[in-house]
Amino acid sequence: MLITPNPAHDAVTTTIESLYGTPQLPLRKSLESQQPAKMPSATKAAKPPVLRLQAVDRVPNQSDDDDDEISAVTDGLLSERRTALPHLAASQAAPVFTLPGHPLFPPLPVYVHPPSMLDTARYLAIRGASFVLSLLFLLVVVLGALSRGIWLLLVAAGQYLQRNSPRQQRRFYAEERARRLDRRTSSRRWKLRQEKREVDEEAPDDDDCPPLEGGKDPVVDDVAYYARRVGLDVETYKVQTEDGFILTLWHVYNPHEYTPLPASERKPRGPHVFSAKKDLESFNGVRRKYPVLLMHGLLQNSGAYCANDDDSLAFFLCKSGYDVWLGNNRCGLEPEHTSMLDSDPRMWSWTIQHMGAFDITALISRVLFETGYDKLGLIAHSQGSAQTFVALSKDQRPELGDRISVFCALAPAVYAGPLVNRVYFRFMRLISPAVFRLVFGIHSFIPLMVTVRRWLHARLYGKLGYIVFSYLFNWSDTRWDYGLRDRMFQFAPVYVSTETIRWWLGADGFSTHECILATKEACLAEVEFNRTTASASSIRDAESDSTAWYGPRTPPFALWIGGADQLVDGRKLLRRLGSGREPCVDVVHEKVIEEYEHLDVLWAMDMIEQVGKEVRLVLWETMPGDARARSVVPRGVA
């Protein structure tokens, strides 16, 4: 979707060569640099645009010799190397952040714009080929998942015949039954209210968040609907990143305490970050709720934090007394950009490095602007934690740490678990970048998955989604509320770039190096050094500051790790942080929940006890003193 910028009254519009590849694009210019607009010369405007996010080149691969014909197609889409293009004059450069190079983030392709007829034909050819090939790949995965599902059904049927119900063997079977009965009672009570149009006398008197929706759950991908079922509500903001993407930001609130802003005040405010904030004095001394931003994992949106009724982490923190905001990464819900359409391959040339440096930065900036605070608490799951760990590193965007009071990482995705060695992941790792782009395209990664989610019946999709994702990532629903499982998968999958999936699973990214910030060789050297070094103090003395990932501006870390998580290895991260290799990192809380798998930190029935209450306390204990003095004291921390 193309979003037209709407500059504020205090901004001027200038035409510059955009950092995201559009030769002439109106951007909001900062107040500090309001100079007369300069137009690029006709010669410069006619040249191919420069994508200034990274150096431009195709990533070399050992198997390139076998892929000459494919490379001839995919390489034809790439523009000239950046080194061959003239640099922008200082007066024409956009005053925004530029991504630094990093060995773990190889250069991405930059596509010629406007494309020639030959380029357009190549785009269409790759899209057609990738549609067929990725569909075949998806069918193989689905058939494998269904075969496994049929086998499990046969095993369960055998147990039923032996009068040994698999349901009764579930970890929280009694609690599941109790919650199912509670939902039925609440549904009948809601129906009675609607019929009589009066408050039910059986409703608890101390409920300060009476439900605003009820009845039978239709199973929808609507965060606001599930918020209203627990007496809360959600307003939607649009946020612009420095590279032009439009993000969706959800604000969870209690309608008895807060009045949502008009839609005109929830639109994008422009690309500049941390340029202004609302004055807390305008709140007339009333205590405010401390802001907390939650970020989701790969192939999800932040609705994953809202799938468990009152036991959802987002709703729990909101009712505890925090100001809860749910951030969504670029393109996930709906691809939106200020100058590009979703059919443009330039719009999909990004990885988690961009999501960390640009998306999280823009979301934090907007939350701080709206709340008037200097810092916020950040909670991130899986990929959300990975992009944050990358962004905070000292060679990426360490100044972001000045805006975060504590970083709570749930199932932190820093080191790979054993799951990356499964056969289908090995296949994706073995193929060259050229073949990967031919199979999976140069746009969104298998967008047909999102189409299937939208068109299939919600409950049928929920069951199919669990079967497929549990097969791929070896999850189980043993600790989840079975009655809500279909709802949990309504918030996945979402749109994500093929380049991001290639970074996670391809030949030169995470699955190869098994770490997000160090090469495989560096990780092996670290293990060997730890083996031969006696103590953390000796490691700290022997290692130079250059080996540390984080500098002095890093916020405190709090970690919740699943001991049975096969997708990522949180224990490796704990060993690194505890070995003295990161002298600037203060780990204020760490917990390994032995029986937890990757998604249990979000959806386990005892998540509030194991994770939620501890997160609530850590947020309060790490809150800056001046913020604590003017903030509501959350329930359960005193």
UniProtKB/TrEMBL annotation:
Looking at the record, the residues that make up the Partial AB-hydrolase lipase domain are 223-308
Q: Which organism is it from?
A: Aspergillus mulundensis
Question: Which superkingdom does the taxonomy of this entry point to?
Answer: Eukaryota
**Which residue spans traverse the membrane?**
131-161
Q: Name one GO biological process term.
A: lipid metabolic process
Bias-annotated ranges (Acidic residues): 200-210
Matching InterPro entries, A to Z? AB_hydrolase_fold (IPR029058), AB_hydrolase_lipase (IPR006693)
Does this UniProt record's set of keywords contain Flavoprotein? no
Segments of this protein annotated with the region Disordered: 192-217
Protein name per UniProt: Partial AB-hydrolase lipase domain-containing protein
User: Which keywords does the record carry?
Assistant: Membrane, Transmembrane, Transmembrane helix
* Pfam families reported in the protein's UniProt record: Abhydro_lipase
